[in-house]
């Protein structure tokens, strides 16, 4: 969600809203298809494909998952590294500069042990802490976005469609709804997996509202 303010600048207000909504609907449809298959074929991502279409499809699914997760994880790691670098510069009043590659290495000390967990239930407490910080970040952004609008007596001039950089927004919009890799683990960890589609629908609506409002306000 922290990517969205800059992304909206690249896409333009109207274009960004429409594309983000379209990607949300497409993602939700794909999520529901995956969940419905999982309710009938109790297996992992790759094994579901293997049981339905054979070994080649299992390999295709697993390869796609690996490539997508590498891309998403790399983007997050670089994003966090850049923010950590900016934080250190701000705290030390630009007296201490730590290169991005060292910031990435420091994150590996935390991420590599966590990546060894194969059951999402084992990291629920850590996930709750992460969710708390995300909520605090959202509150902070909403507060200052609204405060800026009030102080400026309204919104500034906006572009409905940015013809120069709109393609950059497409990638960000797809990246925003990248949680398909967690659909099966979350469903498997539920007490009543049959209720997951309804829960997923509510969550997708809430997340889409947050994403669009955050991008539009910022």
TrEMBL record:
Key words of the record: Membrane, Transmembrane, Transmembrane helix
Q: Which domain of life is it from?
A: Eukaryota
Question: Start and end of every Amino acid transporter transmembrane domain?
Answer: 1-217
TM segment ranges: 12-35, 56-80, 100-117, 126-146, 166-186, 198-217
Q: Is the keyword Transmembrane in the record?
A: yes
In the UniProt record, does the keyword Transmembrane helix occur?
Answer: yes
Pfam families to which the protein is assigned, alphabetical: Aa_trans
Q: Where in the cell is it found?
A: Membrane
Q: Tell me the InterPro entries matching this sequence.
A: AA_transpt_TM
Q: How does it sit in the membrane?
A: Multi-pass membrane protein
Q: Which GO terms describe its cellular component?
A: vacuolar membrane
**One Gene Ontology term of the molecular function aspect:** L-tyrosine transmembrane transporter activity
Principal localisation: membrane
Q: Which PANTHER family match?
A: AMINO ACID TRANSPORTER (PTHR22950), VACUOLAR AMINO ACID TRANSPORTER 4 (PTHR22950:SF666)
Similarity-based family: Belongs to the amino acid/polyamine transporter 2 family.
- Name by which UniProt lists this protein: Amino acid transporter transmembrane domain-containing protein
Species, as recorded: Aureobasidium melanogenum (Aureobasidium pullulans var. melanogenum)
